[in-house]
Design goal:
A: mainly beta, 6-stranded mixed beta sheet, 3 helices, about 30% strand, B: 6-stranded antiparallel beta sheet, about 20% helix, binds flavin-adenine dinucleotide, OxRdtase_Mopterin-bd_sf (chain A), OxRdtase_Mopterin-bd_dom (chain A), DMSO/TMAO reductase YedYZ molybdopterin-dependent catalytic subunit (chain A), FNR_nucleotide-bd (chain B)
Chain lengths: ~200, ~250
């Protein structure tokens, strides 16, 4: 351990639910995206699932909203070391979209891509079983554009760069294909509990 | 609707510069060798990092402080110095009120102290000096941009480079003494005699975009999220293509 002389850190009580190396950002919700926030109206938003699926499909705003509603209430963790507790997102479970397209048994991974062109890769197993959402509401209100509105991917058990803002689609693959930050040195999976921040962690 | 999706921009193109995954994964000891005040609220911290693999202007690193009970705090900091092979690098930190890491640097740190760093990180915001660059920063957001300006000077590059830097007033302008003809400071609250006061606006950008170099600028925007939103929207409205705007938000 390399103790830093004179550094005590903020007074703290161990906060259950805080992954290693993270701090509680409280009411703050920092914005970290490398691109210009797009002006994307709900009427122009679409979400497509294709690749290794039996029935590729694109949903528009109204079609996506016609699916059974599902909410997430819990915590989120950003690789830049803030975490946010007890957030509430509303939208639709990704399972509802995946069930409709019928993934091939050969599909193991997905690339999520945004309307801006941003990409991020995920093992399919991180997107199924009620652990991922397409979210368009935050705290009961429409999701703000700078946080990915009108709709973003939400995969709260992984670092938040995996939860692609302005989500446009998922392509299912039989192999892993690094996305934007993963090509820029970030970890392939990004599990906050194992501190998978950068490639090699 | 079943047509294949094509993104409206080419943002998905890979980062321009390959990042060394090994360097990014390895914590190294950085020894503080010098502290230089820049403004009443910002100072530059110089470190010896003998095994540093080198960096490109615009890249950042992750810095970690450890308390004696094992508690750690880690934050990202842009690298202020130009690439250099003498085993040193510099960071410039704002003193954020109540800030855990910047607070330690501004009130406790002394030459000889050791911290841990890993990096360099992210090739996306890096500028190797190859394309005309229009740099727009506010507050400590000027830090990675200054690395580019210093690199441009140190190498005697003639590729066009312009810096627009926004500060509340002259006393808060980081690196004030170092700017040359490439820089236009914009003051939002107070300015020297004869210099207008006001936030970055379309009229600052219009002449630069109108007389831009052949092939256009590569724009780099850095600062708080509020500034990054404002500046990047101004750029888009002024005709800068979205896929040629790179943004580094400090959170
Ligand atoms: C890519 C990148 C590059 C960056 N480069 C630079 C740079 O070059 N220079 C620079 O100065 N900054 C830079 N930053 C910002 C930097 O990472 C830190 O966010 C900044 O230094 C503040 O950290 P801190 O530990 O001092 O403050 P923090 O402790 O994180 O506090 C930030 C604010 O939140 C409040 N706060 C948070 N938690 C608590 C709490 N529990 N109790 C009370 N108050 C709290 C504080 O009062 C303060 O106002 C960069 C950020 C990124 C993402």
């Amino acid at each position: 351990m390399n103790v830093t002389r004179g550094f005590t850190g903020r007074p703290r009580a161990h906060r259950p639910g805080l992954p290693p190396g993270q701090y509680d950002a409280g009411d703050d919700w920092p914005v970290l995206s490398a691109e210009v926030t797009p002006d994307l109206a709900p009427a122009d938003w679409t979400f497509r699932v294709d690749g290794l699926v039996a029935a590729p499909r694109t949903w528009d705003w109204d079609e996506a909203h016609a699916l059974p509603r599902s909410a997430y209430e819990g915590d989120i963790h950003c690789v830049t070391s803030w975490s946010k507790f007890g957030v509430r997102f509303g939208g639709v479970s990704l399972d509802a979209f995946l069930d409709a397209v019928r993934p091939d048994t050969s599909a193991t991974h997905a690339v999520a891509y945004a309307h801006t062109g941003y990409t991020t890769n995920l093992p399919l197993s991180d997107l199924t079983g009620g652990r991922a959402w397409i979210a368009w509401e935050y705290d009961g209100r429409p999701l703000a554009a700078e946080h990915g509105g009108p709709a973003r991917l939400l995969v709260p058990h992984l670092y938040f760069w995996k939860s692609a803002k302005w989500i446009a689609g998922l392509r299912l693959l039989d192999h892993d294909e690094p996305g934007f930050w993963e090509q820029n040195g970030y970890h392939g999976r990004g599990n906050p509990w194992e501190e998978q921040r950068y490639a090699g962690d | 609707m079943t047509e294949t999706f094509t993104p409206s921009t080419r943002f998905a193109v890979p980062g321009r510069i390959a990042v060394s995954n090994r360097a990014a994964a390895l914590w190294q000891t950085a020894t503080l060798t010098e502290i230089r005040p820049e403004t009443p609220r910002a100072a530059t911290f110089r470190f010896a990092v003998p095994a540093w693999a080198g960096h490109l202007p615009g890249q950042h690193l992750m810095l970690r402080l450890t308390a004696d009970d094992g508690y750690t705090a880690q934050r990202h900091y842009s690298i202020a110095s130009a690439p250099d092979d003498d085993g040193h690098l510099e960071l410039t930190l704002d003193h954020v009120s109540g800030g855990e890491v910047s607070g330690w640097f501004h009130t406790r740190a002394q030459p000889g102290d050791e911290v841990q760093v890993r990096g360099p990180l992210s090739g996306f915001f890096a500028w190797p000096g190859d394309r005309p660059a229009l740099l727009i920063g506010a507050g400590s957001g000027v830090v990675p941009l200054m690395s580019m300006v210093r690199h441009h000077r140190a190498r005697g590059l003639d590729v066009p480079l312009r810096l627009l830097v926004s500060a509340r007033g002259p006393e808060e302008l980081i690196y004030a003494r170092e700017y040359g003809a490439e820089t236009l400071p914009v003051f939002t609250r107070s300015a020297p005699e004869g210099v207008p006061v006001g936030r970055l606006a379309a009229h600052h950008l219009a002449p630069l975009l109108a007389e831009g170099p052949t092939g256009g600028w590569e724009a780099y925007v850095c600062g708080s999220n509020a500034f990054a939103e404002h500046a990047s929207r101004l750029l888009v409205r002024a005709g800068q293509p979205v896929d040629r705007i790179r943004i580094e938000r400090f959170g």
